[in-house]
Structures are given as C-alpha cells and as structure tokens.
Amino acid sequence: MSGTPVAEKPVERPEAASQRALRLQEYALVFVIALLLVVGTVISDRFLSYDNMLVILTNASVVGIVAVGMTFAVATGGIDLSVGSVVAAASIAGGLIVRNDVFGPTGGSIGFILAALGFALLLGLVNALAITWGRVVPFIATLAMFTMARGLALRMSNQQPISLITADTVRYLGSGRLLGVPVLVVVFLAIVGLGWFVLNRTPFGRYVVATGGNAEAARIAGIRVERIRFSVYLITAVCAGLAAILLSGRLGSASPVVGNLLELDAIAAVVIGGTSLSGGKATVVGTFLGVVTFALIFNVLNLLGLPAELQQIVRGVIILLAVIAQRRRN
User: Fold this and answer.
1) Which of 12, 101, 153, 216 is the most buried (most CB within 10 A)?
2) Mean pLDDT, the chain, as a whole number?
C-alpha cells in the first residue's frame, strides 16, 4: 500500500460532549414545555391566561429556589435530603422571634428573616461538618438531618402554626407584587440568574463540577475538594432559608409541617433538567426548565380534575423515567 496519509476523525473532548448533552437535554425540555402549553390550551381556554401563568410560576418558585441549591450539591456527587425539613425548622425559628417580639413590634420581619436564615445555615453547617469532617455519606448525613430538623420544627412550635400578622415585610415577600409580578417569582428568577452565573462564570462553579467529575483529579489540580463539598451544603441551606421566608410569607404563618417532600420535588427537577446524579455535570438552566415542566404538568392535571394521589403516582413515574433515561445516556 502507498503511504498516503489517512485523515483522522477529530476526537470530541469529554467536556464538549458533556456540554452538548446538557444543551440537548435543555432543548428537549423546551419542546416538552411547548407541548404542555398546547395540551393545556386544548383542555382549557384559561390555561394560557396571564393570571394562570403567574399561578404556575408562583407554585414553581419555592421548589425552584431549593432546586437551584440542590443543583450544586448534586453536581459534586452528593445530595441533600434535609431541605424540606430545614424549611420547616427555619420557618418556626423565625416565627418564634416574631411571636416573642424579640425585635419589638416593628422589627418582626427583620427578626424573622435573620432567624430563618441563621437557623437554616446552622443546620446546613451540621450537614457540611458531618459530610466533610465526619466522612459520613451525604445520603445518610442529610437523611439524619431530615428527621432531626422536622422534629425540631414540631418541638419548637408545640406542633402549632405561628401567625405572622405583624411581619408585614415577610408577608409582602410571599404574597405581594412588584410591577404586577409576584415578588416570590421575582426572587425565584433572581436566584436562578445568580445560580447560573456562579456555576458557569466563576472558578467556584468550575471547581464544583470538577469535584463531582473526579475528586482525586481535582485534588491533584489543587482544588480543595472538602472545602467545595462543605460550601455546597451551606448553599442548599441558604436556599432552604430563603424558601422558608417566602413560603411563610405566602401562608401568613410559620408552620412545622411545611416543606413536606419538598426535597423530592427539587431533586426531581434537578434530574429532569440534566444534572447528573453521579456528579460532574450540572445545569441551572436545565433545573429551571425542569421546575417549570413539573409545574405545568400538575397545572394540567389539576385542570383535568385528577385526584392528588394519582398526581403523586404521575410524579413518581416521571422521576423514574428521568433517572432511567439519564443512566442510559451516561
């Protein structure tokens, strides 16, 4: 044979292939959302109304804020099963400050916000220390916090909701409007934008993905892996604290039973969005689309009059199919 050189096919880098897969996942979710909009329009002429779209976004906002934080935890190869219970415990911590007038009759909202965020951070710190210093698997550490935080919420409140009638600012954050748009939705979109910027445009975001992709390689490259893992559980805690403030404001009270199964909805949105459960691949845009997809699905199911128990079955089926599809792609 002659020595004619044979052109070699260019080899796609793993990072490029991963990004391409994420974009395809996002495009697929956009198509699903468009399809759901068509189905909803056929079912009800009220579906595409401005008010109903705001209702959908409002219902998605609390889950969405928690899901943004969850994206960072899952990106490292971890998970946080405690966020729903942390929301309840943080809500009650803030409610106790309001009820006892710790900051006076006019400082109830400030006290609630500081207490909710502070208590959520404290519980997140326990998770972070257990995982990084105690070397406990994230699933077990956060599962333990799942039960502890819920127990704390029930114990501190004596199993009774706490009225936030004097916390005007908190109630405004949960149910007020800014230029005709619910403040809750505005905060949700701001958190999504901030999460996207941190994950995609900062060294910290690259370190998070690198830690989940290959922790040993990340250590060799000089990344402080344990510090990254520590920080992502503080991020999930902050998001849970924000969710507690907004959800309590929307309800007008701090309740020890709020946030039940919130962590599962957040994880489902993250997985459907394309973030890999094994870590190393994450997308905040995908998480946002996953949250909106779930909100649209359940809005359509409500319009169809489907019972709540059947909606739970549908939710479980969607999660299972999403995980199976992700495993096959990997």
Assistant:
1) 153
2) 87
Q: Is residue 296 part of a domain?
A: yes
Q: What is the CATH number of the domain that holds 141?
A: 1.10.3470
Domain count, the chain: 1
Please report whether residue 182 resides in a domain.
yes
182 forms beta bridges with: 177
Where residue 274 falls (left for φ over 0; alpha for ψ -120 to 50; beta otherwise) is left
pLDDT recorded at residue 21: 66
Q: Can you give the pTM of this predicted structure?
A: 0.89
Amino acid letter at 72?
F
Q: What residues of the chain score a pLDDT lower than 70?
A: 1-21, 104-106, 323, 325-330
Chain-centroid distance of CA 240 in Å reads 8
- Rg for the chain, CA atoms, rounded: 21
Q: Quick check: is 33 in a domain?
A: no
Distance, CA of 254 to chain centre? 20
* DSSP at 1: -
Tens digit of pLDDT for each residue in 147-161? Answer: 999 999 999 998 899
Structural domain of 207: 49-329
Could you tell me if residue 37 is inside a domain?
A: no
For residue 290, CA distances in Å to 25, 87, 314 come to: 10, 21, 15
From residue 178, give the alpha-carbon distance in Å to each of 40, 42, 181, 194, 251. 27, 31, 5, 19, 18
